[in-house]
Please model this.
Amino acid sequence: MSQDIFVIIEHLRGQVSEISYVMLAGARQLSKSTGGNVSAVLLGQNAQGLANNLAADKVLYLDHPALAEFTSNAYELALVGLIKENSPRVVLLGHSSIGMDVVGGLSINLGLPMVSSCRSFTADGKYISQICGGKIMVEGELPGPTALVTMVPGGYKAELGQSAQAPALTSIPAPALDNLRVSLSKYIEPDTSDVDITKEPILVAVGRGIQNKDNIELADELAKALSGAVCASRPVVDQGWMPTTRLVGKSGKQVKPKIYLALGISGAPEHMEGMGESDTIIAINTDPNAPIFNVAKYGAVVDLLDLTPILTEKIKQAKGG
Amino acid sequence: MTYEEFKSIILLLALLLATGIFLWRAYQLLWINLRRGQPSGPFMRWGERIKGVFVYVGAQLRLFRFTVPGTAHFFIFWGFLILFLTIFQAIVEGLAAFANPHFVLPLIGRFGPLALLQDIFALLVAIAIIYGLIVRLVVNPERYKGSHKNQGVMVLGFILTIMISLLVMNGARINLGEDPLHVWRPISTIIGRIFSGLHENLQVIIKEAAYWLHLGVVFLFLTELPNGKHFHIVTSIPAVLLRDLEPRGRLSTAPVFNGNPGVSQVEQYRWRQMLDFYTCSECGRCQEVCPAYNSGTPLSPKLLIMYLRDNLKERGHALTAGLSDGIMEKSLVGEVITDEILWSCTTCFACDQECPLFIEHVVPIVDMRRHLVIEGRMDKMLQDALANLGRYGNSFGQSDRMRSKWTMGLQPAVKDARREPVDYLWFVGDYASYNATLTDVTRKTAEVFQKAGLNFGILHDSERNAGNDVRRVGEEGLFEMLVEKNSQVLSKVKFRAILTTDPHSYNTLKNEYPENSTGRMTVLHYAELLDQMIASGQLKFTKKLGYKVTYHDPCYLGRYNGIYDAPRRVIEATGCKLVEMPRHGDRSLCCGAGGGRIWMEEKQVKERPSESRIREAVKLDGIQAFIVACPKDLTMYRDAVKTTGNEKGLAVRDLIELVYEAL
Amino acid sequence: MKIAVPVKFVPDLVEELNIDPSGTALDTAWLRLIINEFDDHAVEQAILLKEKEGGQVTVITIESEGADDFLFAAAAKGTDQLIKLTGDFSHANNHGLARVYADILKELQPDLILTGVQAHNDLDGSVGPLLAEQLGLPYVGYVAGVSVMGDKVIARKEYSGGLVAEIEIKLPAVLGIQASEQPPRYIAYSKIRQVMGTAKIEEKTVAALDLSGGTTVSRMFQPEVAQRATMLEGGTDEVADKLVSIFKELGTL
Model:
């Protein structure tokens, strides 16, 4: 039984996901009130190198072929023993396709309480979670003896979870992982034939306010004038008006452009998760109460269908074209 | 055997053959096929029906809406009836010639004035036919696109031949001195003069040849009659006689098959509707006025009826003959008529209004839409709108609790009709209540009612969408649920009349909601009420506005419910000068939002109906404002003014705004 | 193939959300409940599998506003069995729900259990993984496509960034559905009314819920608006001009 904080590191195909760093940053802050160490837990095969920039006090590393890529069954089995033996005060997992696949099972298996959708911790070690599409915040004491907590991005900057110095790594023998009922068949590559919006410095984003597929042409023109690219929120992609490669949000891509021009996007948390870290967000929406105005730097309550062609013209003129 | 005897025998055989073929084909189409259809009727109000035949068939009233073609058809129609007697005469005399070669039909054959009439009409018909041929072959207007032009030209050719051969035959008889009534046939005489110089024997040959040509083509025409669009000659009078006399805004109850409303096979239509399919003469007038067709969608009301007719005939034939060849497997909804065609309709009623033979186009479309809804075949936007209507009672997906948010801050507060009795229950409608850009006008409306001293109230958050467009989209079950919910609330409210802002709510509340204990509810559109109050002096204006305006007749106020004059009187009472657009009154062009279209995704269009309308309006010299009386019109036309670049020139305003300003 | 779909109802975010006087929970007076969107997708996915593979679909829910309507709509789509659990669910959390669902599912013995991957009011994780562990079954979540291969299913698991993994899972198993292969179909009202006459909802009472595994709430509140954007005033033309100068400032032009 310790006051340590375990952070379950998430990685896919040799890349540590951003939420891992956010969790480490959160763990660092939390450890000030719990008083324990921050231990990163890394599962994989020949994956020690991924621990090199983790801002943790130490890394517990389990190596096994079945852990090479994430599968729920293998990861859960590996973590059960680890948590049972060490009884940390808190275990942080990502509120993601990886973390959420295992945390519930751990809770029931180990009889440990859990909290999900946690965004940050208070100075006195309480959790703050956001639910109901970000409309409601919940604060409470972290339950004991070990709290399993899933974290969402937004409360901490990923850079605070990164370190220039590689932490000490301890290899822990992995348990027997046979009779696994879940296995990875293959990955299906995301379509790379299209523009990679994560690399574009200027993005023109369209949301429901674009109203129909034809109007997207207006955004195309504007993006061209700005030498940027067009991306979209979920409703637009669901309608088939833009391909999924252009989707920004929780289930799409995370982008951090210099300028994110959001046209007709209301600003649901799922979308914000995808672009909240952009340098400058400019929001255009006819609804003055749209949540996006709370994260944008500049905003205007005008009709994007009116504004876009005029703006495109003026930009072309300014560029002398 | 003499020539006359030979002639009589051949004539009899030809007559029997042609008549036989005609009757056999008519029997298949009218008796066999129609019997497979669903029951129709009961048919009442015969006085009105018979009068309709005189007005619409006899006087050809609706045909004159297209003046020159209408005039031509008037002569062809009456020529047909009058000259039918000559054909009758020719046949009887020809048969009787067996016994008496010089037999002349009593009465008909001997009446001078009749002969004159027939002679003149033969010429007029020929002129009308030549006009018709020029239109089809030279002008080839858009409305004939998709019609069977060759068939049309062929039949025109038949009629022209019949006319010319008649005149030639008469001319020959006059030349031979065989016609005692020759003074009564000036036209035939003139025709006869053309070849009067020929030898007598030649004249006889010409006479007989003309006779055989005349009757030969008549019999040919008779056998051809049931085949295509010319069957309307037979079915037009029954179609007009049996037309639906219910209010236009009242859709008939949904036919139900296997527990589900909607038509998925042509035999599921009532036989009265099948009669409509046969009656289409492919004139294309409906297509000409259809906003969906003219904006480039695949819907043509004319083609719709033609496809239904063709499917009815081919299935009828397959069912009778026992062979199918894939015809029975062809789905009506999907293959014969595509989903896109059905969803393109705005239910504006322009087609039904224009059709000279009262063919119903909207009803078959809604029947098929009902089937699409059962199958869940609709675009996502419409699905979401219907889900919202079901859950929140409005298509916007906003809480029902927000419905009367627009009243906030109004002093005095708008009465809650659920709590106290009112004279007028104002049924506000979704668009006026929830659409942020329209609440301004809704508030003005409340203020106008207050200034006018009306005792009115609203249902606040108990109001639900009235259901007009839900029904026309084909969601009959949801429509019934909305009617039930609204009726329950209405039954607890004490009011004298319902007042509406929106013509769509007006239409369904007035025509389709159930009667209460005192009969049908009194429902008024605010234009009607304001008109009444101006006439009685209860409402007085303090200003004369002096704007030059044009008025757009909303489909559900104008065509569906006949209210054209009241809004115009109100406009003039405010001191504005009214200038009419070419397409006004019952020719008003739909804005494109009706029939649930405002809830559907917009496909690629050539030109939106609303934009076409604005372009029509700006052509009016010096026009300042475009006046509407429907919230959906207001949003549609405001958008259209922007997209056509007319923002500086034309203001789109609701009628209530003029009243507000003038008070 | 026997498929079971446990569903739950969540606060409808269209309505205003208010905190109750205790400050630790939502005010139920103004609350309206709506089906968890992901559970709706789970039902659709189950029906799609039934249409492809044959078999039987059971939908299970707890007594709640809108439960009956939803069950009848599910029946109209092709669900064979409707089960409604009655009892006191006023303070239920997902751990509690998972345990009562597990009891029912132990009786039903389905081959595959589909449920929504999450719900927006989840505070103690989501029902699917908790349920799976209760039943000792494997779980894969964020699934947007399911196909059956004998005694296994192949699930398309979504990761952020557009990456998709094909996962093989041995049946019986629990899947957390992110999206059905087709959006949930529309069911006409007349079909639902028709089905109300023939479909039967089985009611089963449950004992008190075991809520252990959840957490405590000391405060529930609505987020303060951090810093609002600098709003650009004026008509379309003026706003466009202002944006051009902002772009110039940022060095884009």
